[in-house]
Amino acid sequence: MIELDKSNFEEEVLKAEGTVLVDFWSPSCEPCKALMPHVHDFEETYGDKIKFSSLDITKARRVAIGQKVLGLPVIAIYKDGEKVDSVVGEEATTKSVEELIKKYA
After folding, report:
1. Burial level of 98, CB count in 10 A (0-12/13-18/19+)?
2. Distance CA 34, CA 67 (A)
3. Predicted local confidence at residue 21, as pLDDT
4. Burial zone of 64 (CB within 10 Å; 0-12 exposed, 13-18 middle, 19+ buried)
5. Partner of 3 at 20 to 30 A CA spacing, among 19, 37, 51, 104?
6. Tell me, what CATH number does 77's domain have?
């Protein structure tokens, strides 16, 4: 899992070739923290097909706002630098995240 911040987001996500999953989260978001171990598990299963990364939005608010992250948790899929899909808030369940990953893996 690549830890993103404002200094590497563009390089690791927006300029990346292929598929990148970004887990937008914050330390105060309980659903985010509950989902995180599952996302790490999915990385073990699908990490050869998708690059997994996470962004603590408290450390990169402008990046999050620029990516139109208005609520948490957000699991977003980027393909060749373009955001192509995401699950947000209550929709971001273990099941929906895995379905999202399978769709792009």
Report:
1. middle
2. 23
3. 98
4. buried
5. 104
6. 3.40.30.10
CA distance 84 to 27: 26
- What is residue 7's predicted lDDT score, i.e. its pLDDT? 97
Q: Flag residues of the chain having pLDDT under 70.
A: none
pLDDT confidence of residue 95: 98
Q: What is the pLDDT of residue 74?
A: 98
Q: How many domains, in total, are found in the chain?
A: 1
Active site residues: 29, 32
Give the closest residue to 81 by CA, choosing from 1, 11, 7. Answer: 11
Question: pTM value?
Answer: 0.97
Side-chain half-sphere CA neighbours of 10 within 13 A: 4
